[in-house]
Task: structure prediction
Amino acid sequence: MTNDPKILGLAFLGGVVPSLLWLWFWLKEDNQKPEPKGILAVVFIMGMIAVVFILPIQKFIQAHVSSDQWELVLWASAEEIIKYLAVLVIIYKTNHADKPIDWPIYLITSALGFAALENTLFLIKPFSMGQNTVGLLTGQLRFLGSTLLHTVSSGILGIALGISLHIDGLKRKWYLVVGFIFAITLHSVFNFFIIRNSGNDFLKVFAFLWVVTIIVMLLFEKVRRMN
Result:
């Protein structure tokens, strides 16, 4: 990995700016009683830090799991869990998540922080090799694909938690489990078709991802009105 500060700076900007644009989009949907910007900034940074923890976990999975399909499922599971924990460690036993919309907002913020650093790491190699055009294209594709995937998958979990906010007992735990199942399934399917299928069906996958995004936006609006 290069130590050139210019390349690292460009890669960082290329990774962070798309995530901040997406974050601006989602935050403006919650304009009635927005969350404290300081807490959101901390959650975003925690999402970035989560990448540091996920890398050794993914290497361990890669070294000890022989099935490609299970490897992708475990990768997706680890990422979704650690993005959730990045939020939980900040707002656990606080009153920062006292409205249904708060959970999707915080989880989407964590996911975008995660995507920001992940995208930065992907951009370093092409920029360090002087392939700026490739790097920019990589950034654009990840802006449309991977960044959106992290946002939507965590958004699904956040919506499930938001809907169950005022539900007590076992039923609320079921919402958490179902939210994780949907998030991990979406993440795993995307990884399978993009990584293992060499991106041959990427247009179909991107179209499917945007359909899911529209559904999540509609559910997001429903949760927002629950406030």
